[in-house]
Amino acid sequence: MTTPFEVPLRSEISRIVSYIPGTQIKDLKEKFNFEHVIKLASNENPLGSSPNVKKILNKSFSDIRLYPDGEAKALRTSLSDQLKVNVNNIIVGNGSNELIVLLALMILKPGDQVVFGSPSFPVYSIVSSMFGSIAKPVALTNYTFDLEKLLDNITSKTKIVFICNPNNPTGTIVSAIKIEEFLKKISSKILVVLDEAYVEYVQDQACKDTIQLLHRYSNLVILRTFSKAYGLAGLRVGYGIAHVDLISNLQKVRQPFNVNFLALKTAEVALNDQKFLKQVIHLNTRMRTLLTSQLYNMGLSVPKSESNFVYIEIKDAYKIYEKLLKKGIIIRPIQKNSIRVTTGTETQTMSFLNQFKKII
Ligand SMILES: Cc1ncc(COP(=O)(O)O)c(C=O)c1O
User: Fold this and answer.
1) What range defines the domain where residue 200 resides?
2) Rounded Cα–Cα distance for residues 72 and 87 (Å)
3) Of 271, 294, 326, which residue sits at a domain end?
4) Cα 190 to Cα 183: distance, rounded to the nearest angstrom
């Protein structure tokens, strides 16, 4: 297509820095003619998903000509039973990413401010730019969201605060008590988005019970996903839990059938297989400990992760990433002095450690 594109776009669009996804297995296989590639770059689940997911997928194929349940009733009811919150406090999204965008769409105007820790999930900054708002990244303290510092950066223009817990990419957590102290101190007119994409992996009880906060803070929304511990990243399902008024307004701005038929069916089945989830968490805890202890032994600085990845501060991060690619291992460079590595199966994790040791 050679004719120039001349349709005027909203000026905000040119300021968006695109999200860069992790290197794909297929691309690396093609580039180096590899038969096997290990991907530890996007915090996906090395065990896949519940065996029941395959069964329901096979059973559901004949019905994909039908539109999905636009209200996601069955999945929201299962979530409501498990989380002990009313169905009307739950919304399901095309990944939790969709819900982040919809929240921003409902709230942000040009000139508003959005506060979050840094480094953290890049989408917080992207959605801020999308609506002409000003992103205010606040440096982490000891690799951890510093809620006092976030408070210091809140102004009359602040409309949304994102707290990523555990934080991607550092894996660190803040306790539910600290989150409540923070909520007590800010205006109930500022939306606090507690992004718990990795909550299932957390072992520290101090940050587990955040849902009870929803009873006291109408400006809090908790986001979770089926992409990580439930192993359904490719199907795109996430959910949000919040005050009924927030949820009913979010329902207005989503697409009528935002979550596809197979995604809804499989998420429900995955949610009900808590035995599989336990295996996932058990493997993750073992691999996280293995990674952390071996990296410590190499003299590296690794914050305590409560997630399914570890963050490693190391110079020449991009060179290390490139060298690992040549060995068929994909990790994620974060900045020029840090990388993030997802926990794999034992074989995958050991392969990474062996190659990494040689490279550094
Ligand atoms: C912190 C965090 N939040 C949200 C998401 C989005 O997840 P999804 O849209 O797959 O539910 C991710 C994905 O990596 C993430 O790391």
Assistant:
1) 66-271
2) 10
3) 271
4) 10
Together in a domain, 81 and 227: yes
The answer to whether residue 140 sits within a structural domain is yes
Which protein residue has the closest C-alpha to ligand 1 atom 2? 197
> How far is 15 from 11, CA to CA, in rounded Å?
7
Report the residue among 228, 309, 311 best suited for mutation to probe ligand 1: largest number of ligand atoms under 8 A from its CB.
228
Q: Is 146 left (phi over 0), alpha (psi -120 to 50) or beta?
A: beta
| pLDDT band of 73, cuts 50, 70, 90 | very high
Residue 87: other Cβ atoms inside 10 A: 16
Is 0.85 surpassed by the pTM of this model? yes
Number of structural domains the chain divides into: 2
Per cent of the chain over pLDDT 90 is: 95
Residue % of the chain over a pLDDT of 70: 100
Cα of 80 to ligand 1 centre, how many Å? 21
Tens of pLDDT, residue by residue over 309-348, are 999 999 999 999 999 999 999 999 999 999 999 999 999 9
Q: Which residues line ligand 1 (CB under 6 A)?
A: 43, 95-97, 121, 164, 168, 195, 197, 225, 227, 233, 238
Q: Nearest C-alpha to atom 8 of ligand 1 is from which residue?
A: 95
